């Protein structure tokens, strides 16, 4: 019996035994970290493997792990970050494999694996394993599939600096795709390994690229780039019936052949489809050598189908590629339906219907009334005018594409790599149609176009509680300027879009870039819906109902944009998490930036001005970070409502007619190092609890900090000076004011009205015009270790029963550097305050007499002036 038949029988036996051995259980997730700062279930991977049950997932946190790991059950091991650069596994014993796999259905993802004189990953005769997105380097063998390891998938791995990148020994029916293999002695080596599939791998700068030997028959090599390998791109030794097509070979020796026992196949049947050289047909392979020579030399491609008209007798072998690929040379196709040069076609659609991938369609000035389907990959459609000006899109007025039917897109793009540049695209188009519609595509460039519609129908106010959107409206609504559906990695650059229902609309579309577009006069300037990881950079959005709208979208970056004149909101996030809004200016909007039910976003270095609301977070917009933003000349600068756990740092709120920073119905927010000045109320808390305010500054306002109906807040080390009132507490209890400065306010430094059980300690309250501290019906408060130096330090009105003006005498440094905590330091600018005039005979820093304000206010342990002694 032949070896191939024996291998198949062995495979079936092992497959059956492995299936019998497989079990099932509810999957668990186990975590691994050897960093004490990252708590986890285990500190090493092997311990997690030992504890895991079949089907469990082991998540490895970033770090460096020195181990040799044996896997004997079907589990998955993945890096937490998904990034092999920060999750590194090195061989503890360099003579052993780093990962030894002795089970079916094992997955290894997202790891950096190095340092073994054996293999980085070694599979010993098992099936259906998945090895993807790993980096393997400095191993004897990167990945080794050994003896009947079958049905495994190796995808998107980077392998370098190994003797062998990937080795298959006696293994079959495996899939190797999208791997990058370089700087190895052998890139991919097959020994007695038939029926495997190699697709879209890049194998470069190895000694030998791909090595097939023994009974390595009936493999398929397709779509691979095999280039710049030193001795040979493909070395075949005693193998046959391999199908090798649509690969790019560019090596000094592309194929080396020895003792070939049968026939290998070097092309498939000619079939429509973009080939590896960019041509429109699949056939054979692209043959080049590094000096630029393309084989077969001097052959022609008369019909321009991307396939040479002559077969290629592969150098120094008996092999023949009957359909060798030609490096595709794109052409320019002209369109003109007006006066001027005679063109190839009078309609854009006709030009597309006769174009091949990579061609350019050059459109001369005129009015083209069409609805156009773009289905040719890597096609460029550009106005002739744009070739004679800059690329900013200002040369498109004379090349007008007008919708022939409002029920269809003007441009409907379903091919990757399409460029549309320098066109004036005019509606009207009705929902769901668009001026330019990208559907399920990537790598398209939409540059320097003008798009406009002539109908605007305002929608309902999203703040009214009506959550319906224009997508649920009838067909009477207008469509979009540019629309992306399920499309990624596209560029929208320097377009001018106006007068649409939605000017630019992204739906289920990720990793696109919107750069320097100008959007105006629409209900929605830019709408990002259910889309992630897009970049919006340098866009100008003016006079829309909503400037930029992110809904159910995450990981997007909106940077360096200008948003103005929005009747509803400038930048609006709804149900969106993990986005970054930075370095943008939003002015003259109803609300400049608003977050609704949107958490863990970062708002950094933005300027919001001349609006009703500058920054507004509401309806469970939690755990956001607002850092170094400026809110200027708004009614309310920064407004938090029903939102918890946010952190505001180094923000500025100036010249607000109502309040600089307001926190309503919110808890556990942190405000640090913010400045709020020249507002009616600089910092305002209403019905909020367990917030922390520290090192904030509030100057030049009627109220520095106004706290109403609030409890359990901490206000520490803030400076509320030069206001009408410094701190103003009303109907608020159980708050703590500590280490603050309340100086030079034109009425009171600290005012408590109907506010019980508050603690005031270690505050400096000086030079306030009426009273340093005013208590109205605010009993049971604890007021100690404060420094008062005002003409009138304290006034108690109404009932303030239970208020204490000192704490228990305690050894500790006090506010005037004495050695005991007790009461407060009572001074006046004229030097005749109680603490300044009463003796401390024993030198303990406490006056010998109590300070009586009234019957409800007695400081039994007033702090003494160190200069007043016996």
Automatic annotation (TrEMBL):
The keyword Electron transport does not apply. Pathway: Protein modification; protein ubiquitination. It comes from the Archaea. Residues 60-191, 363-574, 575-730, 736-849 form the Carbohydrate-binding/sugar hydrolysis domain. The keyword NADP does not apply. Gene3D superfamilies: Single-stranded right-handed beta-helix, Pectin lyase-like (2.160.20.10). Pfam families: NosD. Keywords: Repeat, Ubl conjugation pathway. InterPro entries: Carb-bd_sugar_hydrolysis-dom (IPR006633), NosD_dom (IPR007742), Para_beta_helix_rpt-2 (IPR022441), PbH1 (IPR006626), Pectin_lyas_fold (IPR012334), Pectin_lyase_fold/virulence (IPR011050), SCF-Subunits/Alg-Epimerases (IPR051550). PANTHER family: F-BOX ONLY PROTEIN, F-BOX ONLY PROTEIN 10. This is Cell surface protein. The lineage of its organism: Archaea, Methanobacteriati, Methanobacteriota, Stenosarchaea group, Methanomicrobia.
């Amino acid at each position: 019996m032949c070896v191939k038949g024996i291998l198949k029988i062995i495979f079936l036996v092992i497959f059956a035994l492995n299936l019998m051995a497989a079990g099932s259980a509810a999957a668990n997730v186990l975590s691994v970290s050897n960093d004490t700062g990252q708590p986890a279930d285990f500190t090493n991977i092997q311990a997690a493997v030992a504890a895991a049950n079949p089907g469990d997932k082991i998540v490895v946190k970033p770090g460096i792990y020195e181990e040799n790991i044996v896997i004997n059950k079907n589990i998955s091991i993945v890096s937490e970050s998904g990034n092999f650069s920060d999750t590194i596994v090195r061989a503890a014993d360099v003579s052993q494999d780093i990962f030894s796999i002795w089970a079916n259905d094992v997955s290894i993802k997202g790891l950096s694996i190095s340092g073994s004189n054996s293999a980085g990953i070694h599979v010993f005769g098992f099936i259906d394993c998945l090895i993807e997105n790993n980096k393997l380097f400095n191993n004897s063998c990167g990945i080794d599939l050994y003896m009947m390891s079958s049905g495994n998938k190796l995808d998107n791995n980077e392998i370098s600096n190994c003797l062998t990148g990937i080795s298959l020994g006696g293994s079959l029916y495996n899939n190797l795709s999208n791997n990058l293999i370089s700087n190895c002695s052998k890139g991919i080596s097959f020994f007695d390994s038939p029926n495997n599939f190699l697709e879209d791998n890049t194998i470069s700068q190895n000694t030998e690229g791909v090595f097939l030997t023994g009974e390595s028959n009936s493999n398929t090599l397709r779509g691979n780039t095999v280039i710049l390998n030193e001795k040979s791109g493909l070395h075949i030794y005693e193998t046959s019936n391999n199908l090798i097509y649509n690969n790019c070979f560019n090596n000094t020796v592309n194929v080396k052949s020895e003792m070939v026992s049968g026939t290998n196949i070097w092309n498939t049947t000619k079939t429509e489809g973009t080939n590896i050289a960019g041509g429109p047909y699949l056939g054979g392979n692209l043959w080049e050598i590094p000096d630029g020579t393309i084989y077969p030399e001097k052959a022609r491609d008369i019909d321009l189908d991307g396939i040479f008209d002559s077969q290629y007798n592969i150098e120094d072998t008996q092999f023949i590629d009957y359909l060798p690929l030609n490096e595709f040379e794109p052409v320019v196709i002209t369109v003109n339906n007006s006066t001027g040069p005679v063109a190839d076609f009078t309609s854009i659609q006709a030009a597309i219907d006769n174009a091949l991938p990579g061609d350019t369609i050059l459109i001369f000035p005129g009015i083209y009334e069409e609805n156009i389907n773009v289905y040719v990959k890597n096609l460029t459609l550009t106005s002739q005018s744009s070739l004679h000006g800059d690329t900013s899109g200002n040369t498109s007025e004379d090349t007008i594409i007008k919708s022939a039917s409002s029920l269809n897109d003007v441009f409907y793009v379903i091919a990757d790599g399409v460029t549309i540049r320098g066109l004036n695209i005019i509606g009207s188009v009705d929902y769901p149609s668009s001026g330019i519609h990208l559907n399920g595509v990537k790598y398209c460039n939409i540059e320097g176009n003008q798009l406009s519609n002539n109908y605007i129908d305002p929608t309902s106010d999203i703040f009214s509680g009506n959550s319906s959107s224009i997508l649920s409206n009838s067909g009477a609504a207008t469509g979009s300027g540019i629309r992306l559906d399920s499309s990624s990695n596209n560029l929208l650059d320097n377009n001018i879009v106006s007068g649409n229902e939605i000017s630019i609309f992204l739906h289920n579309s990720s990793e696109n870039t919107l750069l320097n577009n100008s959007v105006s006069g629409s209900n929605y300037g830019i709408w990002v819906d259910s889309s992630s990881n897009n970049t919006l950079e340098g866009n100008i959005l003016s006079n829309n109902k909503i400037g930029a709208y992110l809904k159910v979208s995450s990981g997007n970056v909106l940077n360096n944009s200008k948003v103005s004149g929005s009747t509803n909101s400038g930048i609006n996030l709804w149900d969106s998490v993990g986005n970054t809004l930075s370095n943008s200016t939003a002015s003259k909007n109803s609300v400049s930036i608003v977050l609704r039910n949107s958490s863990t976003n970062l708002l950094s270095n933005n300027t919001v001005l001349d609006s009703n609301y500058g920054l507004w977070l509401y309806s469970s917009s939690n755990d956001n970070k607002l850092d170094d933003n400026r809110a200027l000349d708004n009614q309310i600068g920064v407004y938090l409502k029903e939102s918890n756990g946010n952190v505001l740092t180094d923000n500025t709120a100036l010249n607000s007619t109502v309040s600089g920073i307001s926190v309503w119905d919110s808890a556990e927010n942190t405000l640090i190092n913010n400045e709020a000045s020249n507002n009616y109320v600089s910092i305002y808390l209403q019905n909020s609890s367990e917030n922390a305010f520290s090192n904030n500054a509030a100057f030049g306002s009627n109220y520095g900090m106004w706290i109403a109906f609030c409890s359990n807040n901490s206000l520490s080390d803030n400076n509320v000076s030069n206001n009408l009132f410094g701190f103003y507490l009303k109907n608020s209890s159980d708050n703590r004011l500590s280490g603050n400065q309340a100086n030079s306010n034109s009425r009171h430094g600290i005012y408590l009205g109907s506010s019980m059980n508050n603690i005031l300690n270690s505050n400096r309250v000086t030079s306030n015009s009426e009273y340093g501290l005013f208590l109205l019906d605010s009993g049971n408060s604890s007021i100690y270790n404060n420094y008062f130096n005002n003409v009138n330090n304290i006034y108690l009105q109404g009932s303030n029963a239970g208020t204490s003006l000192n704490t228990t005498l305690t050894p500790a440094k006090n506010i005037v550097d004495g050695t005991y905590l007790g009461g407060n330091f009572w001074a006046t600018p004229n030097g005749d305050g109680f603490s300044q005039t009463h003796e401390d005979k024993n030198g303990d820093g406490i006056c010998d007499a109590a300070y009586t304000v009234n019957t409800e206010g007695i400081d039994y342990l007033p702090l003494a002036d160190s200069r007043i002694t016996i």
